[in-house]
Each structure stands twice: as structure tokens, then as C-alpha cells.
Sequence to fold (234 residues):
Amino acid sequence: MRNPIIVALDVPSPDTALELATQLAPSCGGFKIGSELFTAAGPDIVKRIRERGALVFLDLKFHDIPNTVAKAVTSAVKLDVQMLTVHAGGGTEMLKAAEKAAEETAYKMGRTPPLVLGVTVLTSLDSAALREVGLDVNVEYQVRRLATVAVKAGLRGLVCSPLEIAALRKTIPSQVQLVVPGIRTGAEKADDQKRTMTPKEAIAAGATWLVIGRPIYAAENPKEAAEKILESLQ
Ligand code: C5P
Fold:
């Protein structure tokens, strides 16, 4: 079975990230590097984590004019990342430019193109927040709408919350990969994640990959925590 666990390395120091990556590489499917670690440690952290043989998901949520996003994606492919994020709200031209840059750069380098993942509505936004920025729509409707825009533009994956999986699986083609954060096992302390599912529930609902941060890296024994989660999926 493919290991669907992507550990979010939401730590500020490269040393801590590398220590975690070395310890966890055999027990997970890959690592997510977000803005905190990337901004602190620079592109070198991607190379050093790739050296551990793990897949890297670069979560920088690009959102800019198509030309700039295409260039950022090109740089990410050169770093050898396997997944990266762009905001679906950037529009069709931006999304097409991102996918094209991923495919063309990977082709030139003899690599498999990374999965360009569309981010729809941030889970921190509710309908009142959307209204404030001029979007008088229901959140679920906006998620489905942006997902459709992303898939029509050629994206092969989306990031979504556990509670959006079922609706998206009804809306988008089955081969589109869903990468899902907001996973909790029930054993950890309560934190800022409100709408969660267990790893097993999320996979059963149709998640392709699970992004898990604190339940693994903040556990007393991160390796054991990752292995327990993997066992719960068997
Ligand atoms: O620690 P935790 O398991 O909550 O980490 C989840 C990771 O997924 C974090 O890196 C967080 O930024 C990211 N994420 C999220 N919810 C979203 C999108 C991304 O938790 N809607």
C-alpha cells in the first residue's frame, strides 16, 4: 500500500525539520514544507529533505499574475518538489500557466511533473469573511466553484478540508487527487483545528493524501505516532 501520510514540518528551524525528516522518512509518504520553514531555512531545506528519499510538498500557495506564478513553479520544479500549491482564486489563466510550467520544466529535466494543487477557500474564512471581500456566496458553493475552475484549467489535484471531500468527490473527476489537512486521531490535545476527521475516515471519504502536523511532530514519540496512524489505515 502507498503510504498516504504527509507530515507537515511546521517548525521554524532547519535542524529540527531535518531531525524529524530523518526519523520519520521510513514511516511516512512525504513531508510538507510551508512558508514558516521555507522562509527561515531557504530552498536548501527542500534539497536536504529530498536527500532523505522522501517526497516534498512545497506549500507556498502561489497567487500572482500568470507569468510570475509560472516562474515560481519553474523554480519549484527545479528544486525537485513533488507537490506544490497555488490559489485557485488566481483564475484560469494563472492556473493554466502553473500547470504548463510544471509539465514543461519537468519534461525538460526528465522528471515526473509535480502535482499542482489548487487551494480553494481557506478554512479560516467563513461566509461573513467572504462577504467582507465582496463574495456574497455560501462557502461550500465557493469551494465547489473554485475546484471546478481549477480542474477545468488542467490541475490534477486539490487541497480540501475533510468535510469538503464528499461534496468534491461528487463534483470533480475521480482521478483528481485530494490532499487533506485537518486530521486528528482523537488522542491529541484540542487545538485550532475545528472540523476534523480521523485518518481512516478521511481515506474512506475519498482523500488521496493526508497532511498531518501536530499529531505527529508534537507527539512524545513522532515515529511511533506516524506508525500508529499508518496501522489504523490497514
Ligand atoms: O498540525 P496540523 O495537523 O493541524 O497541520 C496541518 C497542516 O495543514 C498545517 O501545515 C496547516 O497550515 C495546513 N492546512 C490546514 N488547513 C487548511 C489548509 C492547510 O491545516 N485548510
Observations:
- Residues 92-109 form the longest helix (18 residues).
- The chain has eleven helices and eight strands.
- The CA atoms of residues 74 and 105 lie 6 Å apart.
